[in-house]
Amino acid sequence: MSSEWPLWEVFIRGQHGLNHRHVGSLHAPDAEMAINNARDVYTRRNEGVSIWVVRSSEITASAPSEKGPLFDPSNSKVYRHPTFFDIPDEVGHM
Amino acid sequence: MYAQMVKTDAARVRSLDEMDPVERAFQERVDAGQKIEPKEWMPEGYRKTLVRQISQHAHSEIVGQLPEGNWISRAPTLERKAILLAKVQDEAGHGLYLYCAAETLGISRDQMYEQLHSGKAKYSSIFNYPTLTWADIGAIGWLVDGAAIMNQVPLQRCSYGPYARAMVRICKEESFHQRQGYDALMRMVKGTPAQKAMVQDALNRWWWPSLMMFGPSDDASVHSAQSMAWKIKQNSNDELRQKFVDQTVPQAKYLGLTVPDPDLKWNEEKGGHDFGEPDWEEFFNVIAGNGPCNAERLDARKKAWNDGAWFRDGLTAHAEKAADRRAAAKIAAE
Ligand SMILES: [Fe+2]
Ligand SMILES: [Fe+2]
Ligand SMILES: [Fe+2]
Asked: What residue stretch is flagged as signal peptide (chain B) (predicted)?
């Protein structure tokens, strides 16, 4: 036997109320063991209150070469930020 | 260091004008301090150098568990034993973070293990020395982890994202390693004369191998220059060694110990210590596989891997069965 175990990406919720964040990856034969291993590898010092694992092969990523087409269009849309608009002081907090 | 003398395949460092547009764009991003991420274009030499360095670093963390593991069952108190266990477990974690970082460059975990077990891959020379007494465990935390910190702190700024991020995690944990070692020695030097002598003896044996961890002077090395241009390396070996000596000498003094170097003295003008040369012949010998414990370390590592095969196979079989059962249940439900 001895085929290499699949790779899992590990996400940890650091504290209640926060998002899960990607912390790294590890090998494990199945999801259950991936969680067990993630506990040992990534939360030895109370770093989390919840763990997600997902097979790396299940993740679809944007290609680095698509960076321009994907993200450049938002550069020119400065009006999406509230600071684009000058509101006179007399108006009060807005 | 944990990755000593990493080759880069470079004959010399080329200037921006000599690069084609793609490589120039890459180098300019590195120069600007941007991080390079796994799927992005990178020169083949950059990729290969990182694979060598990160895998050597990972192997060092893993093999580094062995000299300390030797004392887990013989720690002087239950508390020291728990601390040492936690420290050694951290080192296993460090190895895993680093193997994962290397895997993002297209080498598999099994390939790296194979390279380690076949003796093809290197790991740090320091782990081929024996741990003869309990004082050696304190000395390793203080000196070996201390030297590792010196090297790993700047690596947090490495240009390759996954390596840099692994280093951030590792550095957070290292300080505990060094302090627990120093703490064990502080306790011992306040003990009986025999205990204090044991600490001095440990320093005598670990001092020079610790200085060797930084590798020979690399001021004239093309590989180092290339690694620095790629921001895989930030400081020269001599720079880091100097910093280590300057930091460690007062700590030895606090313990009431004598650093075993007759040439060691404070140089007011340079604001640092002058010190002697490590025995580089010994270093090259250890790197070549002829250190006091090279064979023992590799055998222990291979034994652990082979003895664990039935367990890994069992987990795989269980995972396959469970998956089959889930698939069957799904079909039955439809
Ligand atoms: Fe470590
Ligand atoms: Fe270490
Ligand atoms: Fe450490």
From this structure: none
Ordered by where they begin, the domains of chain A are: 1-59 (3.10.20.520)
Question: CA B101 to CA B58: how far, in whole Å?
Answer: 9
- From the list A7, A26, A29, the residue facing B316 with the nearest CB is A29
Neighbour order of strands in the sheet with A20-27? A20-27, A7-13, A50-55
Q: Tell me if the pTM is above 0.90.
A: yes
d(CA A79, CA B146): 52
Least confident of A39-43, A73-77, B49-53, B205-209: A73-77
Write phi, then psi, for B273 (nearest 5 degrees): -85, 145
Identify whether the C-beta of residue A13 lies closer than 8 Å to the C-beta of residue A49.
yes
Residues of chain B with C-beta less than 8 angstroms from the C-beta of A45: 173
For residues A50-68, b (16+ Cβ closer than 10 Å) or e, as one string?
ebbbeebeeeeeeeeeeee
How many angstroms separate the CA atoms of B44 and B332, rounded?
Answer: 51
Chain A residue with the nearest C-alpha to that of B173 = A45
- ipTM greater than 0.90, yes or no? no
pLDDT value, residue A1: 44
SS3 of residue B216 by DSSP: coil
CA distance between the termini of chain B: 59
